[in-house]
Amino acid sequence: MSVDMRTYLAHVELANPMTTAAGCASSGRELAQFFDLNRIGALVTRSITMAPRAGRPTPRMAETPSGMLNAIGLQGPGIDAFLERDLPWLAQRGVRTIVSIGGGTVAEYGALARRLTDAPGVTAVEVNLACPNMEDRGRVFARDGASAAEVISSVRTLMRYDVPVVAKLSPDVADVVSVARACVEGGADALSLINSPLGMSIDTETLRPSLAAVSGGLSGPAVRPLAVRCVWQVHAALPGVPIIGVGGVLTGRDAFEMVLAGACVVGVGTALFHDPHACLRILRELEELLQARGFQRLADAVGLAHRPPGNARSRADTTDMEESSL
Amino acid sequence: MLTTRRVDAYHALTVVAPGIAEPFRPGHFVALAVGGPQSSMLTRRAFSVHDVKPDYGGTVEFVFTVRGPGTAWLAERRARDTLDLVGPLGRPFPLPRDPVTCVLVGGEYGSAMLFGLADALLQRGCRIDFVLGAASADRVFGAMRARRMGETTTLTTEDGSLGVRGRVTDVLPGVIADARADVVYACGPMAMLRGVTAVSVEFDIPVQVAVEEAMACGIGTCMTCVLPVIGDDGVTRMVRACSEGPVFRGERVRFEDVGTIPFDALGAPGSPGGGARHVS
Ligand SMILES: Cc1cc2nc3c(=O)[nH]c(=O)nc-3n(C[C@H](O)[C@H](O)[C@H](O)COP(=O)(O)OP(=O)(O)OC[C@H]3O[C@@H](n4cnc5c(N)ncnc54)[C@H](O)[C@@H]3O)c2cc1C
Ligand SMILES: Cc1cc2nc3c(=O)[nH]c(=O)nc-3n(C[C@H](O)[C@H](O)[C@H](O)COP(=O)(O)O)c2cc1C
Ligand code: FES
Is the pTM value of this prediction over 0.90? Predict the structure, then answer.
């Protein structure tokens, strides 16, 4: 008996909960050499910007225990080339595509939404809010509920009504729930947690920061507990809002943990660098785990860890208990 | 994994990997996972392929030096251990259609990847001349094999412990002139590739270089390994060494700007045509 792995991102049905994490699948073509992109729930693109971006100088990456720091700086082709080359390539193959967008002003996010609203092949839009706001002395949108909400409501207004808008949040905030709530009030149909928290490492040979950009985003299993905590808190506060759980997922067990915390979709980033087949492997492992625990549907496991203690046994066991009239 | 051996300052590992050996072309590399299944080292390590053989359905050999924890772990592997490799990766060396004269320049372990190339060139009737260099004699890789395959072989060491004291670029002009070389191929540290390119440009002959940039995935998804390269249209782009390289035409690589985003690169902050005002 196989598990029903279908899931919903707002009203959009995905065949299964696995997605790539933004910025970790390049244009999609690179990963397509390793597996059929149609077999994952959706591909999340790198964050698309209005103009082409060359990104940050190298070194851009430093390996850290169970993770890595990166300061790529949203290198990408810009929206014109994306709409001309990358999106049609994905659309032709029927790949479910969640387009991530990044901007420096509310107007720039709005302009991106305007360009995407009529583009064929956009399953959802994920708004990367971990970008510095040029109108607020470079303060990152995701750090301030009001400016995050302003971006979301602008994108929501301009984007076709039937394309869900996902707000991607950063854990580098005092209260992730209040930013999440502001985004939902601004019109976000779903949330993605977490973007990579800022970290830093220093090369003890050169006596200089390891990254040219000095600090960078920390990703990989090192951040998983942080991601699980954020997903947990936000799901507890906003149980009706679909969550894409991202951060340090390397195995089916890790994906299951995200699901139990409240995620209905799971993103895989850094693990793809280690294992290009990671998405399909994790999907298989997750399905096996769900099956072994007696679940018939993935949906039944979403947020299950929030049940009060004492109720901690699997659904299958609970059902047996009730039927046996004890 | 089949065998492991020491070659002077280097370790050489041979693995049975038919899926890599069969499509292999000179210039390809492999990306290895290090540290075992529970490893805390998540990024892959890139190694050029030194040799492929048809034995056991196809074997691949690579040569490495211990630099940090990943290569230290690799150096401890023994025959019959299993390794997790992805490959062959990257764009291989383009080969000349005609039987021309080629100078192959290798620095440190960079020499290792030149022998597969030399085989392919010899099969096409090319003449080859080797220039191999390193800091010291024990770090010059493949001198014996070069002597067997090359019309001439010139060795350099910085400490003078083998061959000519100095660098490959000190002897390269003489070798190019004597052989009347048509093409130069090079692999080694970036500074060497820059020097080799300058010499080749001086002689007005094409030069193909295999670059080395820090990598995390090796397959083109992480955008870690970029360097500024001038395209056919004259525009500089930050291109990925793993998927768009590692082999480039030397004169297209802006060696002096590696580690920066040149102001005129496509999408550089403040570049014409928009570019980025903000960073993330
Ligand atoms: C295309 C290519 C071919 C290479 N071929 C060889 C070879 O044939 N023999 C050999 O000895 N070495 C080769 N290298 C370099 C080799 O990849 C590094 O020495 C190795 O990754 C260091 O790992 P470490 O854990 O020992 O060191 P650390 O410095 O601890 O590595 C930490 C991280 O940085 C990355 N990194 C650090 N230095 C480099 C580097 N120079 N290049 C790429 N990634 C780096 C590693 O992948 C890892 O993610 C090659 C590199 C590239 C890009
Ligand atoms: C190399 C790299 C590039 C990334 N680029 C983006 C990006 O363009 N937009 C974005 O929203 N997040 C980006 N991220 C963050 C990831 O999408 C993800 O939130 C984070 O890495 C945590 O997940 P992981 O541990 O599975 O990698 C990037 C992460 C990495 C490692
Ligand atoms: S190493 Fe990841 S893109 Fe080149």
Answer: yes
